[in-house]
Write a structure and sequence with these properties.
This protein has about 240 residues and is α/β, with parallel strands linked by helices. It has helices spanning about 10-15, 35-50, 60-65, 85-90, 110-120, 140-145, 160-170, 205-210, 230-240, and strands at about 5, 20-25, 50-55, 70-75, 95-100, 125-130, 155, 170-180, 190-195, 215. The termini are far apart.
């Protein structure tokens, strides 16, 4: 299935990452959007990267994204060059690494925001269930501001099995939930994994039971919890603060 990216940030970052089987679509002819400096930057980068450019009718881009700016990226295999299978990661995990497991995050805005933070803090892998979770959609890509082009994402059938296999490779797995030990008071090991829960239901009981520990983010306000993307960013920051070498 062909996927498309139509945001400026997403196109630029994906071109920099040089994905396989990608083509740049530019609107020409009657009704085409005016090509501003950002589109020209995209064209220049595509030429530099040796990526094919196809001229298309504006109507095609309008069907892809009614709010397009006259340019889009067509991908026959989304993120093929950066998609890392879970098995490949386990075959040779880094000595220092942190992994995120997203327990059925359904909102593409949250998924994209988590990917943006994952890139900023240098996550080694984001593990996502293959069903009942937000896909790497255009909405998620937009929310990631292009970071989805850089973050390795592995889709798996069974999250509980993923936890078990990470633990077998020396990862200490923390479920981020209420009622746990304060995040800032834990000595996070070199190999750390955080589980983040669904927006409404949180982390499943099975995954909580399989985690090595429950960690919580201390709060003093009136709301009961943080948005999952904010909680994920704080967990990643805490790991990076402790391992900033």
């Amino acid at each position: 299935m062909v996927d498309y990216i139509s945001s400026f940030h997403g196109i630029l970052e994906t071109l920099k990452a040089k994905p396989s089987q990608v083509k740049l679509l530019i609107a020409t002819g009657s009704g085409a959007r005016r090509q501003g400096p950002r589109v020209r930057d995209i064209l220049e980068l595509a030429k530099k990267q040796g990526i094919a450019v196809e001229q298309v009718d504006q109507a095609l881009l309008d069907r892809i994204d009614p709010e397009n700016k006259g340019v889009a990226l067509s991908m026959l295999a989304r993120d093929a060059e950066k998609a890392l299978s879970f098995e490949d990661f386990l075959d040779n995990p880094p000595e220092k690494a942190f992994v995120l497991i997203l327990d059925h995050i359904e909102d593409p805005q949250n998924f994209g925001a988590i990917l943006r933070s994952a890139d900023a803090f240098g996550a080694s892998l984001v593990v996502v269930p293959s069903r009942r979770a937000s896909p790497l959609s255009d909405a998620a890509e937009r929310s990631s501001a292009g970071a989805s082009a850089w973050v390795p994402v592995a889709f798996v059938q069974n999250l509980a099995d993923a936890v078990k296999r990470l633990q077998a490779k020396g990862f200490w797995v923390y479920a981020a939930d209420m009622g746990g030990a304060p995040l800032g008071g834990i000595d996070l090991p070199d190999k750390t994994c955080f589980i983040l829960g669904n927006e409404g239901e949180g982390i499943s009981r099975l995954l909580s039971e399989k985690a090595d520990a429950i960690v919580s983010i201390p709060m003093q306000g009136h709301v009961e919890s943080l948005n999952v993307s904010v909680a994920a960013a704080l967990c990643m920051y805490e790991y990076r603060r402790a391992h900033n070498d």
